[in-house]
Automatic annotation (TrEMBL), chain A:
InterPro entries according to UniProt: CT_C_D (IPR003833), Cyclophilin-like_dom_sf (IPR029000), PxpB (IPR010016)
SUPFAM superfamilies listed in its UniProt record: Cyclophilin-like, PH0987 N-terminal domain-like
Domain Carboxyltransferase: residue ranges: 9-217
Protein's UniProt name: Sensor histidine kinase inhibitor, KipI family
Keyword Signal recorded: no
Keyword Hydrolase: yes
GO molecular function term, any single one: protein kinase inhibitor activity
Cross-referenced Pfam families: CT_C_D
Record organism: Plantibacter elymi
Automatic annotation (TrEMBL), chain B:
SMART domains: AHS2
Domain of life: Bacteria
UniProt source species: Plantibacter elymi
The protein's name in its UniProt record: Biotin-dependent carboxylase uncharacterized domain-containing protein
Domain Carboxyltransferase: 27-288
Entry keywords, A to Z: ATP-binding, Hydrolase, Nucleotide-binding
Pfam families the UniProt entry points to: CT_A_B (PF02626)
NCBIfam families (UniProt xref): urea_amlyse_rel
Coiled coil: none
Amino acid sequence: MTADTSTGPVLRAMGEEAVLLELALLEDVLLVHRALAASRPAGLVDLVPAARTVLAVTDARGPALAAVGAWLLATAERALAPGVGGSTGAVDEAGRRSDTVIQVRYDGQDLAETAALLGMDADGLIAWHTGRLWTVAFSGFAPGFAYLVPEREDETIGPPLEIPRLSVPRTTVPSGSVALAGTFSGVYPRASPGGWRIIGTTDAVLWDDAADPPGLLVPGGRVRFVQVPA
Amino acid sequence: MMGGTLLVEVAGPATTVQDLGRPGAAALGVSPSGALDRGALRLANRLVGNPEGRAALEVVLGPFVAVPDVDLWIAVTGAWGAITVDGRPVDGHRAVRVAAGSRLELGAATHGLRYVLAVRGGFDGPQLLGSRSTDTLSGLGPAPVVGGDRLVVLPTPRRRIPPLDIAPWTRPDDGERLVRVSPGPRRDWFDAASLQRLVEQSWGVTADTDRIGMRLDGTPLERLDPGRELPSEGMVAGAVQVPPSGRPTILAADHPVTGGYPVIAVVRAADRDLLAQLRPGQRLRFSTG
């Protein structure tokens, strides 16, 4: 996925200690974030991917903001250059070794309705969900909540499914709910309000204060969902 | 020497344990948290001979009352109010010895909003991502402090209490404060008149002010395209977000890691501490200088 050159990487200052790199597409964010994570300068405080942007945060002891901006732009342009088209084999290998497997009971209360919305049956939706390698695009909403996007492993898969949110969000979604919304899948790390469509449940611990890192899913990480009996 | 405990009798409305927070975890969905008045935290720790990032109490407004079960050195910085030990006035901004069983009271702050109460050794508690801070947005870290809590104090550090009698200080200013800002990433979402209005008017600090953000009141800012949606993007403390109402919110340490409102400006790092001491009703003016 390369950006349209007219909407290519743009730097936007976020005050004196942070700079936002804006990209055209979420796919570009994934590619560029991977390249940035692999070349992250020492002392950088944070690198925060989101839907169209990567925010880099430094401080008085970290690298100068101008240097951070130059690194963001140069890395983005390299990662998005025609012909680069993805990661190097080495990064890919490392990525696959760390795939996280999440076991899911596909017993969610919205499973059948969501499948019907997408013109398939429940088994078809389960096959679609378990048949993809998912990538953590970014975190947000709550500690440990990851926005997962299906990796397009080959061109035959077609465009991502667009799944409407519930028209009325639930006041409580149980911890471990596996859900879909927009082009994302996610797992609720704890009980919270939410408007995503719940298709299943997992016992996986998405957030553990005592673990290092405490979040199971970190940006750039990859996930496979595996069906277990409900 | 053993650390002992501090029994909180009256906690006040929003007292939390804070250190320098957990910066660098936004990619995990974790806010930086930490003391809002970081200078006050550093100073209070230094006054009692602690490393400057030890966990202390951030006491919003007060009153606050606590009784240690051992002799304990304390220092109070940040907000200004009546500080007493068994009814005797003591100074802020200096190390004070509170005898076991004595009653330490911070009266309702008369200037500024957030006291920092440091104890020699610092408060103990489980660390998450290197910090003992309470994150009021996500609930990470210890629960907010309530009356009846018994806070554990770490053993006394080897470092001595510095031999200065009193640190120079001035009470927090109650007047209109000048807050310097740098450009935000979405200033181009606003017309020239709104960019002018941001810096020309005096904004009121509303009561809707906490560790997540501070809502301001004034003549609203207008977006060039009110219908335009911003995909959520990474946020920083000090970001001046403009929601559809046009009344800005300045994000504080417990801010959500991403947000979908355009950021018109960002408060300079050196001026963030003063935000922590602004009281509801107080006024501020932004300056791009």
